[in-house]
Design a protein that fits this description.
- By secondary structure, the chain is an alpha/beta fold.
- The protein contains nine helices and eleven strands.
- It has two domains: 171 residues, P-loop containing nucleotide triphosphate hydrolases (Rossmann fold, 3-Layer(aba) Sandwich), CATH 3.40.50; 80 residues, no CATH class.
- Helices cover 40% and strands 23% of the residues.
- The protein has a six-stranded mixed sheet with strand order 7-8-9-4-10-11, sandwiched between helices. Strands 1, 2, 3, 5 and 6 form a five-stranded antiparallel sheet that branches.
- Bound molecules: adenosine-5'-triphosphate.
- The site of adenosine-5'-triphosphate (ATP) has 11 residues, from strand 2 and helix 1.
- GO terms for molecular function: ATP binding; ATP hydrolysis activity.
- Keywords: ATP-binding, Nucleotide-binding, Transport.
Length: 258
């Protein structure tokens, strides 16, 4: 029964002028899980994410959130249902402090049609909540630092705080450890573990060590289709998965030599 899954896709397909980037994908994400979407370069992971959060309309197929079709909804409507995608760093304002960025996210949740937050009391309340969220992601001491001056790993943590500001029950994380050194990776792994309590997470992640440490279930995409699914051990032992990864590495090497 679909209600067992927080997020489900049925026959999800995206064609770009005859090229099928996502091909009949049936994804099922269970409540409370940290679920990874992995696969070699060009497998269709980003396109699936863009379909889920409505940056792109699907060519065919259906997306269900808590058993309810959300295929035709706008991304802000989906966010209001509790399904929130963590934004890229470019979406946090570089010349605002960490606290101001979280406050803006909280205001966005309140909506622009109400101006009651302009009262001082509401502003105080927003500041308090923003501090709590900074605390939750380990950024209390960065509250008054301009985002542009924060180290890369801390900016990603701030991005998580602005996502939490929208009160998600399910978070979509887009390569959360991309471009990070080992120390930052460890910190973000711990952070994801912490904020995933009581929530469901779907993440695209290239770093397989991160996936093995965090994820309950893994879906492997290759050439737009689901190649394998299961826990880390079963997926990593699957010969089809090994072949898909090795094939893509060989292709990359070939490309590099060309
Ligand atoms: N707007 C577009 N127009 C045409 N083709 C596209 C478009 N977006 C993606 N594609 C193609 O769809 C395929 C899947 O791309 P996608 O970015 O989803 O893969 P990915 O798994 O996220 O890859 P990576 O790990 O490299 O980010 C690729 O072959 C890509 O070239």
């Amino acid at each position: 029964m679909s209600a067992d899954y927080v997020l489900e896709t049925r026959g999800l397909t995206k064609e770009f002028r005859g090229f099928t980037a996502v091909d009949d994908v049936n994804l099922q994400v269970q409540e409370g899980h940290i679920h990874a979407l992995i696969g070699p370069n060009g497998a269709g992971k980003t396109t699936v994410f863009n379909l889920l959060t409505k940056f792109l309309p699907p060519t065919r197929g259906e997306i269900l959130y808590r058993g309810k079709p959300i295929t035709g909804m706008k991304s802000n409507e989906i966010a209001r249902l509790g399904l929130v995608r963590s934004f890229q760093i470019s979406a946090v304002f570089a010349h605002m402090t960490a606290l101001e960025n979280v406050r803006v996210a909280l205001q966005r949740k309140l909506g622009t049609s109400f101006h009651f937050w302009k009262s001082e009391k509401t502003l105080d309340h927003l500041n308090e909540r923003a501090m709590e969220l900074l605390e939750e992601v380990g950024l209390r001491e960065y509250a008054d630092i301009l985002t542009v001056e924060m180290p890369y790993g801390r900016k990603r943590a701030l991005e998580v705080a602005t996502t939490l500001a929208l009160d998600p029950t399910m978070m979509l994380l887009d390569e959360p450890t991309q471009g990070m050194g080992a120390e930052d990776v460890d910190r973000i792994v711990e952070l994801i573990r912490r904020v995933s309590k009581g929530r469901t997470v779907l993440m695209v992640e290239h770093n397989l060590s991160v996936v093995s440490r965090l994820c309950d279930r893994i879906t492997v995409l290759a050439r737009g289709s689901v190649l394998a699914e299961g826990d880390y051990d079963s997926v990593s032992r699957n010969p089809l998965v090994k072949e898909a990864y090795m094939g893509s590495e060989a292709a990359e090497e070939e490309g590099a030599q060309a």
